[in-house]
Write a structure and sequence with these properties.
The complex is a heterodimer of chains A (456) and B (73).
Chain A lengths: L4 E3 L3 H13 L4 E6 L6 H5 L2 E6 L10 H11 L3 E3 L9 H9 L3 E2 L4 H8 L1 H11 L6 E2 L6 H11 L3 E9 L2 E6 L5 H13 L6 E5 L4 E10 L5 E13 L2 E7 L6 H17 L4 E10 L9 E7 L6 H8 L3 H9 L16 E8 L1 E2 L5 E2 L2 E2 L2 E3 L7 E5 L6 E2 L6 E9 L2 H13 L2 E3 L5 H8 L2 H5 L6 H11 L1
Helix pairs in contact in A: 4-5, 5-6, 12-13
Chain B lengths: L2 E5 L4 E6 L6 E2 L4 E7 L2 E6 L4 E6 L6 E2 L4 E6 L1
Keywords (chain B): Biotin
Pfam family, one (chain B): Biotin_lipoyl
InterPro entries (chain B): Biotin_Carboxyl_Carrier/Decarb, Biotin_lipoyl, Single_hybrid_motif
């Protein structure tokens, strides 16, 4: 493999990538903004390069600053992590042009899957069903309203270049369409692209996604699914694998679709194909539709690592260095059950209001058999308003789903944080709720649970 | 008429100022939108009144409790 590896990210994912580099004997180089000079991810790497002031646009989102840091440091490979520049095709190209190996898919695959409308066109070509909707060229308010009526309310308006729940608006009926469209466009502008698409809104939905892993020699495999239905503001908080109610036959079908899409865009590396499933039981392949592909490592990749025993960052590095994947699809059946919780600096009692500040004290449970902790911050670190509120991920693995849920809830019980608010207690109660124990909750569950929890 | 100070509830940056001085606002109207930890947080008018002055600019950093706007109410 080619070291050193520049890690173009921060927080827990930068620490996690550095750990794999170390295990593989690759030198790692962190980058940091002025707000992160003393951050945990800087200490986790073998060296570090300053890339600019605290605002992301001037540091973690600055392609010139990161390329310059990579060249200055002698890096040969660049790992983008998730978020920031990880799905930026221009960044992938800039790396290649600077003689660096971008750890991710080819620029063309990022572009093909980069917009939701473009991704749906790929899906149509590949024969994979996408959510019924309109993503045509005519973006006039009149045409969009007409298409919404044809699709049937409720509908969702989504920014073509959006993500992370931003630039999305649900519309219940025709009279609300113009105002929702204006709001969605306003948020879309923040992505530098005000185009939107209109989609059927599935009233009770589960978020199910499939991990794919491909090498540069034509092998494309899937590593099973993750159910990420526990969300707030369309952002995931708890993820698990296998997905409740998903049997081997359905897994094979979703895997087939994900692999077909990855092949269609010449995918290389680790990626995730996201689906929305009608949550009305039983899960039915005919009511599961493709939404988008994330052309990067996901926050929730550890649950897949726990049930497959693979280190996805290791395989990203090996694939980027040109190695072949040495497994066959039949070697990759999931073992046991894994669940992840995102420990965030936020206050569930105040509608998940972020809680930036200095972490006066942070105690996380000790990792051990069946419990993994991916942390990005320590006692004394500062959580600034510039970056996202993720402090650490706690991941439990056990032979059964019930044991994994309880192991994770117990781990959350053991979290002690002072100086900031966290969602640890809230998530532990959610994991122990009857609905979660039963499995198969939809994407509205967590918000409803929050209201009941606040009242209790 | 009395001056009503409108503080922010979170450390954030000012993303977008919606209100203008002299504007009449109702309770619950969005005066400005903050951004913190990748989330947009609206600052709503605590009551009906007229916007007297705006004490911050877009892009400014504000701290929890800081007064960002004065209202005549």
């Amino acid at each position: 493999m080619l070291g050193p590896v520049l890690i173009a990210n921060r927080g827990e994912i930068a620490c996690r990538i550095a750990a794999t580099c170390r295990r593989l004997g690759l030198r790692s180089i962190a980058v940091y903004s002025d707000a992160d000079a003393g951050a945990m991810h800087v200490a986790a790497a073998d060296a570090a390069e300053r890339i600019g002031p605290a605002p992301p646009r001037e540091s973690y989102l600055s392609i010139p600053a990161i390329i310059a840091a990579a060249l200055r440091s002698g890096a040969r490979m660049v790992h983008p992590g998730y978020g920031f520049l990880s799905e930026n095709a221009d960044f992938a190209r800039a790396c290649v042009e600077a003689g660096l190996v971008f750890i991710g898919p080819p620029e063309a695959a990022i572009r093909a899957m980069g917009g939701k409308a473009a991704a749906k066109a790929v899906a149509r070509e590949a024969g994979v069903a996408a959510v019924p909707g309109y993503d045509g060229e005519d973006g006039s308010p009149e045409r969009l309203a007409e298409e919404a009526g044809r699709i049937g309310y409720p509908v969702m308006i989504k920014a073509v270049a959006g993500g992370g729940g931003r630039g999305m608006r649900r519309v219940e009926a025709a009279p609300g369409f113009p105002a929702a469209l204006a709001a969605a466009r306003r948020e879309a502008t923040a992505f530098g692209d005000d185009r939107v698409l209109v989609e059927k809104f599935v009233a009770s939905a589960r978020h199910i996604e499939v991990q794919v892993l491909a090498d540069a020699h034509g092998t494309v495999l899937h590593l099973g699914e993750r159910d990420c239905s526990l969300q707030r503001r369309n952002q995931k908080l708890v993820e698990e694998s296998p997905g409740p109610g998903i049997d081997a036959a359905l897994r094979a079908e979703l895997g087939r679709r994900a692999v077909a899409l990855a092949r269609a865009v010449g995918y290389v590396g680790a990626g995730t194909v996201e689906f929305v499933a009608d949550a009305t039981p039983p899960l039915d392949a005919a009511r599961i539709w493709f939404i988008e592909m994330n052309t990067r490592l996901q926050v929730e990749h550890p649950v897949t690592e726990m049930v497959t025993g693979l280190d996805l960052v290791e395989w990203q590095l090996r694939v980027a260095a040109g190695e072949r994947l040495p497994f066959a699809q039949e070697d990759l059946a999931p073992q046991g059950h894994a669940v992840e919780a995102r420990l965030c600096a936020e206050d569930p009692a105040r509608n998940f209001l972020p809680s930036p500040g200095t972490i006066a004290m942070l105690r996380l449970p000790e990792p051990g058999p069946g419990l993994r902790i991916d942390a990005g911050f320590r006692t004394g670190d500062v959580l600034t308003p510039f970056y996202d509120p993720l402090i650490a991920k706690l991941i439990a693995h056990a032979p059964s789903r019930a044991e994994a849920l309880e192991r994770l809830a117990s781990a959350l019980d053991a979290v002690v944080a002072e100086g900031i608010r966290t969602n640890a207690g809230f998530l532990a109660r959610a994991l122990r709720s009857e609905a979660m124990q039963a499995g198969g909750v939809d994407t509205h569950f967590l918000e409803g649970f929050r209201l009941r929890d606040a009242a209790a | 008429m009395a001056d009503i100070a409108v503080p922010v509830e979170i450390t954030a940056s000012v993303w977008k100022i919606e209100a203008t001085p002299g504007q009449a606002v109702a309770a619950g109207d969005v005066l400005m939108i903050l951004e913190s930890m990748k989330m947009e947080i609206p600052v709503e008018s605590p009551r009906a009144g007229t916007v007297k002055s705006i004490l911050v600019a877009e892009g400014d950093q504000v701290n929890e409790g800081q007064v960002v706007l004065l209202l005549d109410a």
